[in-house]
Amino acid sequence: MARVLLGQSYFLRFDPKLLAAMQPYPPLGTLYAAACLREQGHVVSLFDAMLADSEDGWAAAIDVQRPDYAVLYEDSFNYLSKMCLLAMREAALRMLALARARGCVTIVCGSDATDNAARYLAGGADVVIVGEGEITLAAVLEAGVRPGGPSLAEIPGLAFHDADGRLVETGRRPSMRDLDALPPPAWDLIDMERYRAAWAQHGRFSMNVATTRGCPFHCNWCAKPIWGQRYAVRSPEAVASEMAWLQRVHGVDHISFVDDILGLKPGWLETFARLVRAQEVLLPFKCLSRADLLLRDGEVEALRTAGCEMVWMGAESGSQKILDAMDKGTRVEQIVEAARRLREAGIRFGFFLQFGYPGEDRADIEATRQLVLRCLPDDIGISVSYPLPGTPFFARVQADLGPRRNWQDSADLAMLYRGPYSTRFYRRLHTAIHKEFRLYRAAGTAALAAHLRRILGGSRARRDLARVRDALTLPFDRAVLAALARLERPRPDPRGRTPGPARQI
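Above: the chain's sequence. Below: its structure in token form.
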């Protein structure tokens, strides 16, 4: 059978913000692909870009392994792969060139390649896999190694150039439904000790696990190039067994569930909680969820029983107008109630917040700020609306897009379309809200002034010195924001709503 080198192009070293955080996870999607190819009898090796220094490591791996096929199989469970950061796309194209120069057949699978197949074919890919990749990749290899096998044109889920240089697209392959039929990820291909060492500074060893693929909700800015609108779910028995194996064999003591939403299927969480308790696999974990789902009967209690430590909620906005414009399907009061239930259950929670959606004005920004101060989550993540191909949001703002369509790295925060305010405004807003949030988290609203007086008057640790810096510089950030808001004035809502009155930011 074929010799295959699998890799991916997400280099932690090319993303300064996440490099500083140093919480790396292996490329789970790539490991699933490796396991599937092994099951077909291929000889598989892996280049793990996550902890690599540069693309030179990929070239060295090709020289050592001498594969027939060099496959860039991006980890679709990593949300940054879906965002298609420019630093990672540039790395992928360099990796393709290195593989082609060494005589390998080159194959690419991932969100960016699915959306931009022609770009990757022009950049050195022989074949681009469109959508979910395990079955399609195995079929491509079979076509290459088995005489009389199917031609590429007969394999659904591909884009390639024919002998005359014409682009051939073979349509989409339906996504898998039975995820339990997949072999376990090829964990042995990663350097587990390097990951353990990276996590040592956090006092734990965390590993990533997926229980689902896809999401059925209709948020109009959310791209779904791999699994579309459908979703599939693993059995809770399979997930509990995988966690037990990671704990027993590798000493993992924390889990990051990488699903868009954990426990999407009704009753799944309750069964899962019962299983992990019965098997004594009570690993603390973090996950993502939605406010409305957290209000289902027994949902928060099942999370607590299963060992949930942290829930990240896609709150997005404290303005109902903006949530409705996003087709989010949730209400502000649901966010508040879900936060209350999580706190009462002793589960920490974070809010993902999004600014810059069309029609946003200062009243909407202030509503989001007030939501944060009212609920005081344990953490927040702030982004600006990011137009991704294939989404209704992209179609809505396409006429306002500039020549640049992607962020360079995860801390970029550039407005890629002509939104309500400028990139400069939203970057300053990001800074100001984070500072205010940290101050309120440090002391609570009632005790904030006393806390600041106390730490300003004595010797404190570095964390308190950072809070002093936040307190001293926050008024300046607010003044800059107010000046920018006066100068820029938000663009009117395309649906005709007049921007609201100016309020404090």
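The longest helix spans residues 462-488.
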